[in-house]
Write a structure and sequence with these properties.
By secondary structure, this protein is mostly helical. Helices cover 78% and strands 0% of the residues. The structure holds aspartic acid.
Length: 413
């Protein structure tokens, strides 16, 4: 171990997100120097985007099934489970709507559109909403997997996951297979992401060469929109829900989330933050062990409010940047897809970026937009992971309160 790391050069030892940032900056410089001929480098970026596309179907399918089947002991946990899922999905939908709203007010991609659209051959090609809704049940699930129809895949995966839980013992071998496949897909994602610095380098060079450096200024606005959304979601929405539905003073909640929030911000992994989340919810907020040990791991797997918010901001940013006009139906499709996709997002660094590609594909937005966002993804990931974790804790407090499993003395102390 020591040997191999000492054999690595300074580049090899650099954290991935720093390499991606270096790739982005180097790409911008090279693109600015090369001008339109930077098109020559683009194929390297296209390879990277194709590799990301390759991951989507098996990654979503396996991790969704694992997310659903991880809810063991469904009888006892049935009621709490349903409450948790409704709250998780509901708060996620609010988060993405907030992201879309902020992005349409701040308009991070505005002004870019003319330059980018003129030179781009990309057009939006999503089917109308009603059609999408009718089509959500796949007539042929294998066909859905082969075509990469993500809503159909999500529908089928949820059905299969629930059925596997319901058949109990008999479902275990299949669950094991999916768990192992999901692990493998996480590993493959890690491998593909290790090429991100080069993919981002090539795509940024292409963007900067073709459209000029001005195209990149709006990224600061994207960061501002995501951070502002994150703050509003916690300080206004979560505290509001706690006081209105939980009849609780939100101040102890805000104090209680500080430790896990700091861990989430620095690690960008809600799964990695789980020990801190459990500790805070039990010891500082007085949530019973029974509720927290069921609701929080489930939340770390399926509840991604921050990721959803980020997807709302970025999808709209990319639409603005590429001059694609979105209809109301497209907004609804984005909310639906991102909410469902959040169930399949792994709580590991960078997972949200892969899921963003899914949202873009569903609504027919250009995947090239991904590259522009990828360069700053870590900065966004830190904020969204923090919100993901704060959301899990809020739901655990709310459910504990409603089940009479909240130790009020601990909560208020
Ligand atoms: N890093 C996030 C998390 O662990 C997921 C994401 O990339 O959005 O919660």
């Amino acid at each position: 171990m020591d040997n191999s790391s000492s054999r690595k050069g300074p580049w090899g030892r650099l954290a991935l997100w720093k390499k991606i940032l270096v790739g982005m900056v180097a790409g911008i410089v090279v693109g600015a120097l090369m001008g339109p001929s930077a098109e020559l480098i683009k194929p390297i970026g296209t390879l990277f985007i194709n590799a990301i596309k390759m991951l989507i179907v098996p990654l979503v399918f396996c991790s969704l099934i694992v997310g659903i089947t991880s809810m063991k002991d469904t009888r006892k946990m049935g009621r709490i489970g349903i409450k948790a899922i409704v709250l998780y999905l509901g708060t996620t939908a609010v988060a993405i709507a907030l992201g879309l709203a902020l992005s349409s007010i701040i308009e991070p991609g505005a002004g870019l559109n003319r330059a980018v659209t003129e030179a781009s051959t990309i057009s939006k090609s999503a089917p109308p909403l009603v059609q999408t809704l009718l089509n959500i049940i796949p007539k042929n699930p294998i066909g859905a997997l082969a075509e990469g129809n993500i809503l159909q895949i999500i529908f089928f995966a949820i059905g299969l996951g629930v059925a596997l839980v319901l058949i109990g013992e008999k479902g275990k071998p299949a669950v094991k297979v999916f768990e192992s496949l999901a692990e493998a897909m996480y590993k493959l994602t890690e491998i593909v992401m290790s090429f991100a610095p080069y993919g981002v380098f090539a795509l940024m060079a292409w963007v900067a060469g073709k459209f000029g450096i001005d195209v990149l200024m709006p990224l600061i606005k994207v960061i501002a929109a995501v951070y502002l959304g994150a703050i509003i979601h916690v300080l206004v929405f979560y505290t509001g829900v706690l006081s209105i539905f939980g009849r609780l003073n939100p101040m102890p909640y805000l104090r209680g989330i500080t430790n896990p929030a700091a861990v989430a911000y620095t690690t960008s992994s809600s799964s990695g933050t789980l020990p801190a989340t459990l500790k805070a919810s039990q010891e500082e907020l007085g949530v019973s062990k029974g509720v927290s040990s069921f609701v929080l791991p489930l939340g770390a797997t399926i509840n991604m409010d921050g990721t959803a918010l980020y997807q709302g901001v970025c999808a709209l940013f990319i639409a603005q940047a590429f001059g694609v006009h979105l209809e109301v139906a497209d907004y609804i499709t984005i909310i639906m897809t991102a909410t469902l996709a959040s169930i399949g997002t792994a709580g590991v660094p960078g997972a949200g970026l892969i899921m963003l590609s899914l949202v873009l594909t569903t609504v027919g937005l250009p995947m090239e937009g991904l590259a522009i966002v990828a360069g700053i993804d870590r900065i966004l990931d830190m904020a969204r992971t923090t919100i993901n974790v704060c959301g899990d804790i809020m739901v655990s407090v709310l459910i504990a309160k409603s089940e009479g499993e909240l130790d009020k003395q601990t909560y208020n102390s």
